[in-house]
Specification:
By secondary structure, the chain is an alpha+beta fold. The chain is built from 5 helices and 5 strands; from the N terminus they run E-E-H-E-E-E-H-H-H-H. It has a 5-stranded mixed beta sheet, with helices on one face.
Length: about 160
């Protein structure tokens, strides 16, 4: 099968088998920032934004989303121009081994797209479904709080 997908703002025509998931085609085409964890939709390592909605890419058949817009963590910022959320995760020491980081960052990004002033409950709920096997989540929660601060500062600079 072939299909065109808009990934991180760029259209790509990809070839894949009918049983391939969105995770499969992303990984097979160099989007290694999307991690393969449990393949059961439980760990959050493979999350992407699909047409603006946070989804576990391991649970989506690629053929069902041909023509869709997909955003990975590299689509919000990169090493040379990181997003404030990415900066906050690094500054707070919330990257540990890094395996869960792309999913945590995207879950935080999605949270902010819906709620620019989340409280502790909102943050924990947004991160629910993203597992980190390295920490007790303290630094991750610190990073999200720092990201909130950075995002507000950035907004105030625009005014």
């Amino acid at each position: 099968m072939k299909g065109v997908f808009k990934i991180n703002g760029k259209e790509r025509e990809l070839t894949f088998k009918p049983h391939h998931t969105l995770l499969d085609i992303l990984r097979d085409n160099g989007y290694t920032e999307v991690k393969e964890g449990c393949r059961e939709g439980e760990c959050g390592a493979c999350v992407v934004l699909l047409n603006g909605k946070l989804v576990n890419s391991c649970q989506v058949l690629a053929a069902s989303v041909i023509g869709s817009e997909i955003l990975t963590v590299k689509g919000i910022g990169d090493l040379h121009s990181p997003h404030p959320i990415q900066e906050a995760f690094v500054e707070a020491g919330a990257v540990q081994c890094g395996f869960c980081t792309p999913g945590m960052v995207l879950a935080t990004y999605y949270l902010f797209s819906k709620n620019t002033d989340p409280d502790e409950k909102d943050i924990k709920q947004a991160l629910d479904g993203n597992l980190c096997r390295c920490t007790g989540y303290v630094k991750i929660l610190d990073a999200v709080r720092l990201a909130i601060k950075k995002m507000k500062e950035r907004e105030n600079e625009k005014v």
